[in-house]
């Protein structure tokens, strides 16, 4: 059947847009005409249908400092609009007279692009190269303007505090998102490496912290403790008929910033932007959700501008009954939607994962997505030492942080070791991990340990040669263990200080690996500069938030890899969606991690590159997504989706699956709003 679908899609491409309904399935790269029930200004005000770009970038409220040339020159053009509505659409959708009369031709648009470029140059702006193939297209031109405006901002705000600049950039993108979704996602996809740090980690953390002040219009849905008993009907208030991907948070552990209550909604929004950019999920089918069950953040409770419930967090059964009701409501309306849990505090992250993972198609990104990314990095660190992967079982790994992320990583790494030859399947007597939390090294002497953590507590048996004690400090542990890997998921910025990093110099590995995975940047356990300075130039480094590479002596580069779950969650979600899996199994997650681990070549690994560039995120996601689909098929969990059923999926080869997944990715181009006839 899927082969028929392929043929059909080729035919559609041939006839270009002769269908009368929008494609119903996820992705569908070829746009059919979009049925639009709106007319006139309602279309212009709908970011989904809008094809107008006003040059809003130079408006005065951009937080651009007054001395910036932007406020001198380009503002006189602030009324300029680019419009790509053809005359047929203007006639039939009541748009005539509501737009400037010119519909730009290829040549005219190209010229206007050049004019804009020279105007920018006139004011000393840096015009970056255009990455778009077809520069004459209205959207493309607008894209260039947006990108150039952004670059101008970078140029004009040099020397300003980083937070001000980052928020100004976020506002530029957010405004575009509010006005013209198609263009926003085009800009994002074509510039993901530059824009990911704005719409995602680290700037999204700043946005969440300042959310009440930045709030302009709602995005996503809010279910609060006050909505108990109403959620089943509330879910139908969401205007889109179909939803494929949901990211939900309760705001209780936003990055390493703690409880931000309702302000945490920025995280699901950012994660879903990454879903659109990386996995090609149709943005009309994503839904960010905030479960507002109160907050224990005293500052927010006192803040007059705070937009959430002013009450302490619900606990126990009261809390779970809210999440249960929400999950049932989602499942009733969109039984095939994938639900990603994000930034829940540890106790609820584990509890909800156990509670729902066999009933719904869901996963916890902080526990499971992070684990896969870290495992890929750990395997890369073995390869960097020039050792075979089976030597992973001999690596000594110190993990700092025994929370949802740390324990997720430890569990997956342990499972991976147990699958390797020569290890007793029960794992007995094999503990390559030293785990620390805020009270130091965790040993079996610790009272009241969570069972998930207790599995990794050090004993005092004959294997314990390092003479360490309960609560030992990080530096003590590193000095005695001489680990191959030091991995931080503690949320404590700078905890890998000079003393700790110098101790890592004595590591038993010829390429000591330091993973400072906490977010945002201020919470990173250390910087790459410090790693290459104190541990040595042979170290390998990865962090959760992006850092720049470090220039080493002798013309070499110290690579600042980014070990962030954004490499995996889009592929896990997309693979689960396209396979139509009933639930997301350990096998599917493991396949995702292995796929990422194998993405990097030996040559890159030797240089210290452990993760691919974010610029390749769509390519990576197609592969990870396909690996997840194949694993779901192998485990008989795949039920298929739309016109590709389980048998079709089974008949696909590995490369067929990659093609299929890639073809299902949505790409932003304006859909015709009326039939051409
Ligand atoms: N890079 C990624 O993809 C990624 C993914 C998930 C989480 N994270 C980051 O990891 C961090 C932790 O997330 P989490 O969900 O595990 O949080 P969590 O609150 O569940 O756990 C934090 C852990 O750190 C420990 N800790 C606190 N202070 C410490 C100290 N001084 N020394 C040693 N340990 C200390 C705590 O005791 C706890 O065990 C956050 O900053 C988050 O942004 C990064
Ligand atoms: O959001 C991120 O950047 C990664 C991770 O999910 C986190 O919670 O830090
Ligand atoms: Mg997270």
Task: Give structural notes.
The chain is an alpha/beta fold and 677 residues long. It folds into 4 domains: 153 residues, no CATH class; 151 residues, Rossmann fold (3-Layer(aba) Sandwich); 185 residues, 3-Layer(aba) Sandwich (Rossmann fold); 96 residues, no CATH class. Helices cover 42% and strands 9% of the residues. It contains 27 helices and 18 strands. The strands form 5 sheets. It has a 7-stranded mixed β-sheet, sandwiched between helices. Strands 3-5-4-6-7 form a 5-stranded parallel β-sheet, sandwiched between helices. Helix 16 packs parallel to helix 23. The radius of gyration is 26 Å and the shape is globular. The two termini are 30 Å apart. The N terminus is likely disordered. Nicotinamide-adenine-dinucleotide binds next to helix 16, helix 17 and strand 9. One of its GO terms (cellular component) is mitochondrion. It is found in: Mitochondrion. Belongs to the malic enzymes family. Its cofactor is Mn(2+); Mg(2+). It catalyses: (S)-malate + NAD(+) = pyruvate + CO2 + NADH.
Query: How many E strands?
Result: 18
Q: Using only CA atoms, what is the Rg? A: 26 Å
Give the rounded overall mean pLDDT: 84
CA distance, first residue to last residue: 30 Å
Low-confidence runs of at least 5 consecutive residues = 1-30, 54-81, 105-141
What general outline do the C-alpha atoms trace?
A: globular
User: What fraction of the residues are assigned to beta strands by DSSP?
Assistant: 5-15%
Helix content: 40-55%
Biggest sheet record: 7 strands, mixed
Helix/strand/pairing class, anyone?
alpha/beta
Number of helices: 27
CATH class type of the largest domain: Alpha Beta
Spatial order of the strands in the main sheet?
10-9-8-11-12-13-16
Estimate nothing, just give the exact number of structural domains: 4
| CATH architecture type of the largest domain | 3-Layer(aba) Sandwich
Could you say which small molecules are bound to this protein? nicotinamide-adenine-dinucleotide, (2S)-2-hydroxybutanedioic acid, magnesium ion
CATH topology term of the largest domain:
Rossmann fold
CATH superfamily of the largest domain: NAD(P)-binding Rossmann-like Domain
